[in-house]
Amino acid sequence: MSTHDRSTNVASSNDSPRPVLDVRELRKYFPLSSGIFNKRAGTVHAVDDISFSVMAGETLGIVGESGCGKSTTARLLMRLIEPDAGRVLLDGRGIAEPAPHGLAIGEVRRQMQMVFQDSFASLNPRLTIEDSIAFGPVVHGLPRRQAKARARELLARVGLAPERYAARYPHELSGGQRQRINIARALALEPRIVILDEAVSALDKSVEAQVLNLLLDLKREFGLTYLFISHDLNVVRYMSDRVMVMYLGKIAEIGPVEAIFGGTAHPYTKALLSAMPSMDPARRTQKPPLTGDPPSPIDPPPGCRFRTRCLYAEDVCARLDPQLVIAGSPDHRVACEILRPASGHSLAAPAIAHAA
Amino acid sequence: MSMPSPATSELDLRGAAPAPVFDPATALVAQATRGYWRTVLARILRDKVTVACALLLLAIVLLAVFAPLLALADPFKGSILRRLLPIGSEGFLLGTDELGRDMLTRLIYGGRLSLVMGITPVINALLIGAFLGVVGGFMGGKINTLIMRTIDVFYAFPSVLLAVAISGALGAGIFNAMVALTVVFIPPVARVAESVTTQVMSLDFVEAARASGASSFTIIRVHILGNVLGPVFIYATSLISVSMILASGLSFLGLGTKPPEPEWGLMLNTLRTAIYLNPGVAALPGAMIFMVSICFNMMSDGLRAAMDVTQ
């Protein structure tokens, strides 16, 4: 991926935006075994050679149906699971690579933190809220007293009065309150990058809006970079500077939020967007834009992964594995043969690409 | 649309966002927050059955521990003249056994060995089994398979048969009987520990702890043990009664305690010949085993209910 991606809406003090996170051909396959002899039954292509970069101070939204590899990508970036191939560079230094130019995983985990979807499961039921938040700093060597003081500060910062909540247990709180605590815990290590893995998806709408605004405030205050994973397109549109659309472990489309929502190029993104309920009854979609579930990610056939559900699929789509090509603006990239003039697809003319 | 458009939510909610969310349900208990174990204790004290069982067990344990200090008859001194006196005889409140020894004294003294043989193997099995189970559940993969399949070998035998086989092989004696019982109880404890650990490991807070850079040891200490030991401990208390009955069984077969040492299982064995002559006295050691077992089981139930503070 290019380092000259122009990031938008970034209030960055740096003169030239640089990628804080650079992902190169990241891959994770999960082997499936069956029977008592662990016979190899197939391979789940959870994340299949994806490359993208995240600019300092921006919010990159990641959208896609469930099972498309969003969460696996998040866990790969955090090194909660080991990638099979590919590199992740943090400030140009390879994560978990040898010392001179590499970065130890422990250091990565201080700079990058994660908020999980299930607010209850992501808090230890036996620890008080204060102890949960202070755990990370204590692990990194902060004295317990100072760690607790920081926990209380953060509790106040996420809108929970420390004197009332610090000594409480997770089951005594509501989902929205717990998610605020999870955010506070993620911030306790003073990270620069926060990965929000469906962090607001389990909350009801009014609480979701509050938490989203809290996230925007915190981002401004601490100068954070977000990777915002969600299946909710409205939320992603609200939060993101750039959006990455994933389908079955591959990037379908990536670009600035206006380009994705205004100048959609990939047939899959188009289908996703037309599935968004419109406020205007006259503009409501009459027929489902996509039918069925995504095909199984186990041993996918060659070619474009979306072709089984694509309205425009042709022979060429089965032959070629579409690469990301520039569509419209230079930082808007799409993996579709229609967008590649020489692909041989009947619709592959530059004019159509731009009209899309 | 699923949420307000950016423009309106910006106006409506931005100001309200950082304010604490008021939740009446949690506000009610806000003052009453205390430590986890204190909460559990308070909940146990409200459970009358558990308290009654605990008090009864405490009484039996105290009697057994301080037996030599009590003004009791000699548990070993019998008389051919006063064999098998019925319950309520003068000077012998609970009658006498087949050798004319005072039953009350022997029941109190018998509690010493019976309780030790009920509790010690379970504590040992708790330590070893929980260690194996937590390590297996945490490591997963091949190590877990190795540990759990080895343990399954012991599962193949019925517990009584296994206890008899091991203590038979090691030879009669209290120590060997306790070793045998420990071996019998390690597999079920390890099983429970492993399954609870696997369950806890799948929860996001363990991932979050890993994401914060904690070592495996710290994660086990802070996040795994706290959530695993509770259920394992509850399960282990329910094993105490089984252990007592098995220990009594071993003694009954002559593999545990040796006569004339008082022990409930052995007493049951030696008195069985008198069951037609004096059934009341012959049933007494069995009644003690039964009572203590029930108490331990009720207590473990009460503990389970009390430790589930989310309900």
Give an overview in words.
The complex is a heterodimer of chains A (356) and B (311). The longest helix of chain A has 18 residues, at 205-222. In chain A, the strands form 2 sheets. In chain A, strands 7-8-9-3-10-11-13-12 form an 8-stranded mixed beta sheet, with helices on both faces. Chain A has helices at 70-77, 105-111, 129-139, 144-157, 162-165, 175-187, 205-222, 233-239, 257-262, 267-274, 315-319, 350-355; strands spanning 19-34, 39-55, 59-63, 85-90, 93-95, 102-103, 112-115, 193-197, 225-229, 242-247, 250-256, 325-327, 329-334. Chain A has 356 residues and is α/β, with parallel strands linked by helices. Chain A is globular and about 65 Å long. In chain A, helix 3 packs across helix 4 and helix 3 packs parallel to helix 6 (175-187). Mean pLDDT of chain A is 84; it is low at 1-15 and 350-356. With 311 residues, chain B is an all-alpha fold. The chains are: A alpha/beta (356), B mainly alpha (311).
Can you describe this structure in just a few lines?
The complex is a heterodimer of chains A (356) and B (311). Chain A is an alpha/beta fold and 356 residues long.
Oligomeric organization of the protein chains: heterodimer
Over all CA atoms, what is the radius of gyration of chain A?
21 Å
Mean pLDDT over all positions of chain A: 84
Give the CATH superfamily of chain B.
MetI-like
Give unreliable regions of chain B as ranges. Answer: 1-33
The total strand number of chain B stands at 0
Q: Roughly what percent helix of chain A?
A: 25-40%
What's the helical proportion of residues of chain B?
A: 55-70%
Number of helices of chain A: 12
**CATH overall fold name of chain B:** MetI-like fold
Structural class of chain B: mainly alpha
Biggest interface reads:
A-B, 62 and 41 residues
Number of domains of chain B: 1
